[in-house]
Amino acid sequence: MASNFLLVIHSYFPEISDKQIFALFYFFIFLIVFKLLKSFALSRCVGALRRKSVKAGDYAVSFVRSIKPWFYISLALWLGAQVLDLPPFLSQIFDALLAVVLSLQAAKISKVVTRHLLRKAAGAGAVRDFSGIISFVVSALFIVIGILSALALLGVNVTALIAGIGFGGVALALAAQKVFSDLFSSLTVYLDRQFAVGDYIVVSGEGGKVEKIGWRSTRLRADSGEEIVIANSLLVAGKINNFKKHEKHPGVLNLSFSFTNSADHLLSAHKIVAEAAKNAGLELRRSAFVKTSGTALVLEINYFGPTDQDEFAAATEKLLLKVKKRCEESGLIFA
Questions:
Q1: CATH of 248-330 among 3.30.530.20, 3.40.190.10, 3.30.70.60, 1.20.1290.10
Q2: Which residue has the higher pLDDT, 318 or 159?
Q3: Which residues contact 219 (CB under 8 A, 6 or more apart)?
Q4: Is 304 helix (H, G, I), strand (E, B) or coil?
Q5: What is the pLDDT of residues 145-170, one digit of tens each?
Q6: What is the pLDDT of residue 50?
């Protein structure tokens, strides 16, 4: 039957050899097989995974879809060409092209794997902020490996080229040391999950609500309204107090006392503030004289109150009036 099929082909295309016919036949067979395998994986295997786990199913869908048609077309073409008696140089070109195609497909798959690992290890925020740059680095690595492999298959001596890339990589790493430090610090913040967007944190005396965690710095919104930008390398190295569990509204007040008050008299202000905060139903975090202003000492009061704005305002008013009354009774003079 096969011989009859070949005779028919030769009757129309006498210049085509049997091996060329078989190469074309294998190409279409492999192409159909790869296409069917991809369709089967999407329709059956991925469907079963989705019924068990939505996240696993989504990852499997993304993984299978990352296998592009140009990949299995190139692979089918290379497999079909194996039956041909190609000249050595042409065979090397086919092998080199396959190496490049494999590296490009590996780069595509690495993006899916990177996003999945980041989401699993550090959450959606890390995917949003870091998947782009990490995927770019990993993809570039695969592409460079593919190009070097292709050149080696073509007979090019890549040893000197690899050495040059190595020296260039070291120089680039030294030049971008600070950038990489911030990047790894940011990943550490996400992986350790010390805090998240929306948490109220205090770092080295600077406190505020976390608004954004970037790949170089983290932005806080202080109680007074100003924006605080802290390098992630400082966050990793420093002490972080996270007040998320309080789930209360943070507040800060500044009271100015005259220098004419004695030191012992000024110290009694801490006790007055503590009693007033307790009476107002507020949680006192800290009271301290933090600076001078003209002829006054400034007492900074940090506290937590109800999340409802009206209740918070009422409690703050009660705190202030109670402090004023007790200070007047004890003879403390405001500036």
A1: 3.30.70.60
A2: 318
A3: 210, 211, 212, 227, 228, 229
A4: strand
A5: 888 888 887 777 777 666 666 655 55
A6: 57
Domains of the chain, by residue range, sit at: 1-85, 86-175, 196-244, 248-330
Let me know if 207 is exposed, middle or buried by CB neighbors in 10 A (0-12, 13-18, 19+).
Answer: buried
Contact 43, 54 (CB under 8 A): no
Report which of 296, 300, 204 is spatially closest to residue 251, judged by C-alpha positions: 300
The whole-angstrom separation of Cα 317 and Cα 143 is 64
What is the CB neighbour count within 10 angstroms for residue 114? Answer: 21
**Distances 69 to 31, 34, 81, 82, 145 between C-alpha atoms, Å:** 9, 9, 18, 20, 22
Which distant-in-sequence residues (6+ apart) come within 8 Å of 59 by Cβ? 112, 116
- Strands 296-305 and 240-242, bridge-based pairing: unpaired
The angle formed by the CA atoms of residues 107, 111 and 116, to the nearest 5 degrees, is: 145
User: Is residue 118 within 8 Å of 131, Cβ to Cβ?
Assistant: yes
Q: Which CATH architecture has domain 196-244?
A: Roll (2.30)
Non-local CB neighbours of 79 within 8 Å, separated by 6+ positions = 26, 27, 30
pLDDT of residue 322: 92
Q: Which amino acid is at 87?
A: P
pLDDT class for 13, splitting at 50, 70, 90?
very low
